[in-house]
UniProtKB/TrEMBL annotation:
It comes from Punica granatum. InterPro entries: TSET_complex_member (IPR053290). PANTHER family: TRANSDUCIN_WD40 REPEAT-LIKE SUPERFAMILY PROTEIN, TSET COMPLEX MEMBER TSTF. The lineage of its organism: Eukaryota, Viridiplantae, Streptophyta, Embryophyta, Tracheophyta. It comes from the Eukaryota. This is Uncharacterized protein.
Length: 280
């Protein structure tokens, strides 16, 4: 009888018992705001917003992980975190990231690719960030030598090029991440990583409606910055063929080819507009 009473608590105020709730053994995430009842026998007692009681063991690996990280022992925090199932790793990695331990959080095996990319960027592990981006965008098999050949196939969406079309769609989805990775690689003189990201973004940029105008202009500037003039010229011609006159003309201007810039205006029916703006 006494043992039964020990597992029950009166939830209320002013000395009036409004409910008798049996403490559960453990709850993963009580809904806040929370009222801290106290600690007893290594267990933290809480009351959630719905007036339900929760017992959280302070020896739980997730609690230990957070306490150790807050104390400054990130290595031990990761060791405790790995004792939990993989579905908890994203949550713990976010906590470690907030505490400034991005590099240590990368050791958790169950983190998602999206979070792994962010952690790799934070810890300047750009090679790992690139691998995450290739996986997320499904563009790992897009080689450097077949881009020029396959662009025509992409534009006509040939069925046998289904995998390539999916890769382009993936690149478009993560265009901002590709641009961020290129800039980070440039800032740290990792040209090979920037080149891998650039060639994929250039392929996606040649598809009508794939990238936004600001993304196309950013791509053109980065191609020119890396001396990828041949690839930039291919991009201009593809932009002309799909009717993106402004972006094609901008890219041609970055390339320094006035004749190609005029061709971009003329072939896309925007020469009159260009002349008008030139004389305003």
């Amino acid at each position: 009888m006494e043992e039964k009473k020990a597992n029950e608590v009166a939830v209320g105020g002013g000395g009036v018992s409004v409910a008798v709730t049996r403490f559960p053994m453990e709850q993963k995430r009580p809904v806040g705001p929370l009222v801290v009842v106290g600690v007893r026998d290594g267990v933290l007692w809480l009351i959630d917003r719905y007036m339900c009681a929760h017992a959280i063991s302070l020896s739980h690996p997730g609690i230990r992980c957070r306490c150790l990280a807050a104390y400054g022992d990130a290595v031990s925090a990761v060791k405790w975190a790995t004792r939990l199932a993989r579905e908890h790793h994203d949550d713990l990695a976010q906590f470690l990231l907030g505490m400034g331990y991005a590099t240590e959080a990368l050791h958790l095996p169950g983190i998602s690719k999206r979070l792994e990319f962010d952690l790799a960027m934070q810890s300047n592990d750009l090679k790992r960030a690139l691998q995450c981006l290739l996986t997320m965008s499904n563009s790992r098999d897009m080689g450097p030598d077949n881009i020029g050949l396959d662009l025509k196939d992409i534009l006509t969406v040939i069925v046998k090029k289904e995998n390539l079309v999916e890769a382009v769609q993936g690149i478009v989805k993560f265009a901002k991440e590709f641009l961020d990775l290129i800039d980070a690689a440039d800032a740290t003189a990792q040209a090979d990583i920037a080149r891998e990201a650039l060639k994929r973004l250039a392929a996606a940029g040649s598809v009508k409606g794939a990238l936004q105008g600001n993304e196309l202009r950013g791509l053109a500037l980065r191609l020119a910055n890396h001396g990828e003039l041949t690839r930039l010229g291919v991009l201009v011609n593809n932009l002309i063929s799909v009717g993106l006159g402004r972006e094609a003309a901008f890219s041609a201007a970055v390339l320094g080819d006035n004749a190609l810039m005029e061709k971009a205006w003329q072939d896309t029916g925007m020469l009159a507009e260009a002349v008008l703006h030139a004389h305003v």
